[in-house]
Amino acid sequence: MTKHLYVWVSFTILFILIKLAKADNYIVHMDLSAMPKAFSNHQSWYLSTLSSVSPKSRAQTNINLPFSKLIYTYNHVIQGFSASLTPAELEVLKNSPGYVSSVIDRTVKVDTTHSFKFLGLNSGTGAWPVSNFGKDVIIGVIDTGVWPESESFNDNGVTDVPSRWKGECESGIQFNSSSCNKKLIGARFFNKGLIAHNPNITISMNSPRDTEGHGTHTSTTAAGTYVEDTSYFGYAVGTARGMAPGARVAMYKALWEEGAYTTDIIAAIDQAIDDGVDVLSMSLGLDELELYEDPIAIATFAAIEKNIFVSTSAGNEGPDVETLHNGTPWVLTVAAGTMDREFVATLNLGSKGPVNGIALYPGNFSSSEFPIVFMDACGNTTDLRKTKQKIIVCQDPGKEDSLNDQFNNVQVAGNIAGVFITNNSDVDVFAQSPFPAIFLEQKDGDAVVEFIKTNNDPKASIEFKKTILGIKPSPRVTSYTSRGPSYSCPSVLKPDIMAPGDSVLAAWPTNIGAARVNEDLVFSNFNLLSGTSMACPHVSGIAALLKASYPDWSPAAIRSALMTTSDQIDNTGSPIKDMGDNLRPANPLAMGAGHVNPNKALDPGLVYDATVQDYVNLLCGLNFTEKQIKIITKSSSNNCSNPSLDLNYPSFIAFFDDTGAKPNSTAMLEFQRTVTNVGGGSFTYRATVTPINGLKVTVEPDKLVFTAKYEKKSFKLSVEGQRQLNEAVSFGYLIWEDSGRKHVVRSPIVATSYKIEK
């Protein structure tokens, strides 16, 4: 027994020692003001610091050790570097002169043609011609790389690359400097962090070339040029183009099939700042981190300081609340909505007539009639196999995963086709089916079942590859889009805005399967993808249109213009509905201020601007320590004389979450705002507030008179309600409208009883 105990203890100690010796990647923040004058630059100081933390290096047994430990030196996004360190080395580093803090490297989540028309963009009027289609604005995309041969990157008729551009087209496997052109003006790749995590890793495509498709899709959604006669296997036929077809694209590949780490992502942002991008588009994020712990939040603060607009995705963890990432107050956070387009198949029932259902089957299908049979819940695979040569009709019982089970049963059974009757609002997940499948609403399904039951020999045919435009109601909030409030900064309402994210058509690498037909991959130059990953680049492109029109506007001014001119009403004249909330009117925690409207954003009338100092005031208001604020701002002289959680933001969120409050006791929450007249000339605005159940909202003053362009006026908005609201979320809107009704400036107001747990 004693011997066994001794062996067990020995192995335990050995395991602990091995674990303590194992290196991991860290992002290390340093205080540059502490750098000794003997060092000519910060990189030499960092290398010297690293050499002092390793016993081997201190013994001078390996002079190259600090170089092997250093991953990146950062110039803009942080004051510091990333390195591979054992726990023991990290502890020594913490006592080094100039050390501020460190965070472990983390993996990130990737949030995976017709949309320009749905958004009202056209060549004759509005945002496209006024902005010259975003001409010469440079959009930097942090993603999985790019497929440069795509027609969406053709540079026919494109003028020379702007002289201010400092970027490069880096060579690598199946990629060289000639892969770029006057449209795709830069392409770089970053994987030192990934390799440091796994030194024995084999990178499948060590270059900016895209091996996943995500980066090609997002970058061409933002700024793809005109490509005629595009489609997804016959669906969505037309001319594809991005939101800003005149803009330039620079790809920064930091997301890899083998993994994606923050050390590489912030290195990409650092380089994008240096290269001179105007807009950064990032369809990725980190969950539940404080701002000073979030490398992406810290890196984007540096971008905002350089007047770079940053667009990010909200995430795909909906419909639950408090699930969004990128709730960072200085970036735009984009939710996903649907478009007024459906991809369908027609089920022809002979004399009964046709019935349309959702379908995206990419293969070819016979136009012949086949026997059709109703198999109830389609739960018996043995019976399904006996009816292989028939069209199978299944009734979804509406239980958890029941549609998924039916779908799999029919696929395994190998029936001619499957017809699924369901009330499930997420059938798009199944629509890109590898076998012929069509999804019907209940009322249409009932007609099909009646046809089968009332005919002795019922037969039907199916026509796939149909696209219907003008679907009503549209848009709707998708169920998967992540919801607020923001974990990292609850006092700022997130998300900010909604854009098309469902079944978005954009360019795709020709060697990556776009779909399956049975067991075979099929390929296409264009693909349909869904997610907030697709919504984000829509707004990145639209921001480029505004940047081209108003090059001197701050990122906050552009964000305000997008938000206050967005739409809350769908194409039926009713409030936009939420597919994740039983089609109730969508609240701003789901869709932000509303659905983006690029033409209206071009002339917002008033903007809510914000400076770097305003963000510092917010950080001070969050009760961050001096060191935590310094990590974000990279400054030793942050002014915290006016700490405030009340950022000058084009939205309002009030927390009435006092669970210990006495019954019927009330609280008054006040918000100060300043608006800038960008409409030009003299305008008089009056305020109205839509009624909000259980709350009293007042605005003082309720009239603002502007006599000159860029004149500023301030007001106070007060929200009074019970300290503990009965409703989880109540909402309405503050509307400033000028006397000539030229400008309507709308901001969401949310009152919530949610309590953010940290």
TrEMBL record:
Does the keyword section mention Protease?
yes
Q: Which SUPFAM superfamilies match?
A: Subtilisin-like
Taxonomic source organism:
Hibiscus syriacus
Domain Inhibitor I9, first and last residues per copy: 25-110
Q: Where in the cell is it found?
A: Secreted
* Alphabetical keyword list: Glycoprotein, Hydrolase, Protease, Secreted, Serine protease, Signal
- Give start-end of the signal peptide: 1-23
Q: Out of the domains of life, which is the source?
A: Eukaryota
Q: Which GO terms describe its biological process?
A: proteolysis
Q: Which InterPro entries match?
A: Peptidase_S8/S53_dom (IPR000209), Peptidase_S8/S53_dom_sf (IPR036852), Peptidase_S8_Ser-AS (IPR023828), Peptidase_S8_subtilisin-rel (IPR015500), Peptidases_S8_3 (IPR034197), S8pro/Inhibitor_I9 (IPR010259), S8pro/Inhibitor_I9_sf (IPR037045), SBT (IPR045051)
Main location class = secreted
* Name of this protein: Subtilisin-like protease SBT1.9
Family in the record: Belongs to the peptidase S8 family.
Q: What is the lineage of its organism?
A: Eukaryota, Viridiplantae, Streptophyta, Embryophyta, Tracheophyta
